[in-house]
Specification:
Layout: H1 2-22, H2 31-54, H3 65-91, H4 98-126, E1 132-134, E2 144-146, H5 147-166, H6 174-200, H7 204-231, H8 239-264, H9 270-276
Antiparallel strand pairs: 1-2
């Protein structure tokens, strides 16, 4: 009798395992996400080590006032959008419909995005650029590296990725969704840190090392993003459109990377680079 019971339990366990495999149940993090985590930790430690050993460059003596005017204009353009999103957020508080709850969560993130951008644009506009280091990797005339912008990006870009991917969450809770997305967000934060430090660190070899490291990390983040898309429910309503929006985000990030390199190579003016950002 005991043997029959054990046999049934064994068969049931095998059946559950087979069903899990059939349903596509995977470990908490797939390979791409684990690589993002490992590489991000290595990148953060490398960045901190370079910063401590070699130090950041000097601050700019003068800042292009045309660039400061642009930051004033950007701040004014952001304000109406932030107010509209805030109005939607407040109006959705009394609606308990699940779709509206998801919309409310998205609104919190969008308002946060605008608040972060308003903060760093206001800082750069009213405090003469904030912290403006010399871009020591740039060829040609001396140009500034707006450190306050990178500080803002370290919050705004991961938040934007969260907003962009939330449409693919499906039936996942917000906590489950963010947990799965965390390696990608951490990788993004780490390569933003490396891309800033790569421009301002004194030693040219270590500077270029960090710049290259940041673009390698970006490639790993793309790999993980592809996995996140593939993991999304194939029956998700409007899936093609939502995937298309995620792909568009990656194209925009790729263009940002090109502008970063064009600025370093002096293929575009500092003002044009800042206006694009």
């Amino acid at each position: 009798m005991l043997e029959r019971t054990q046999s049934k339990l064994c068969l049931a366990t095998r059946a559950d395992a087979a069903q899990s495999s059939k349903d596509g149940v995977r470990p908490p993090y797939p390979l791409a996400a684990r690589v993002c985590l490992w590489f991000s930790w290595a990148q953060v430690f490398a960045s901190i080590w370079v910063w401590v050993v070699y130090g950041a460059g000097e601050l700019m003596d003068e800042v292009d006032q045309e660039e400061i005017k642009h930051y004033h204009n950007a701040k004014v353009m952001l304000l109406p959008a932030m107010l509209l999103e805030s109005c939607y957020l407040f109006s959705s508080q009394n609606n308990i419909n699940q779709l509206k709850l998801q919309g409310s969560e998205m609104s919190y993130l969008v308002v946060l995005e605008y608040c972060v951008k308003m903060t760093y644009y206001s800082t750069m506009a009213h405090f003469n650029g904030g912290l403006v280091h010399k871009n020591l990797r740039a060829f040609g005339p001396l140009r500034g590296c707006y450190t306050v912008r990178y500080i803002g990006w370290s919050v705004a870009v991961p938040n934007l990725i969260t907003i962009n991917n939330y449409a693919l969450a499906g039936k996942k809770s917000f906590r489950e969704f963010v947990t799965r997305l965390f390696p990608n967000l951490f990788c993004t934060w780490a390569y933003i840190l490396a891309s800033w430090l790569g421009e301002v660190v004194h030693d040219p070899f270590m500077g270029w090392f960090l710049v290259i490291l940041s673009f390698v990390a970006y490639c790993f983040a793309i790999w993980d993003q592809i996995d996140i898309i593939l993991e999304a429910d194939p029956h998700l309503r409007g899936r093609k459109f939502k995937v298309g929006v995620v792909v568009l985000k990656e194209i925009i990030f790729f263009v940002y990377g090109l502008v970063y390199l064009f600025g370093v190579a002096n293929w575009m003016s500092s003002l044009a680079e800042q206006v694009f950002y």
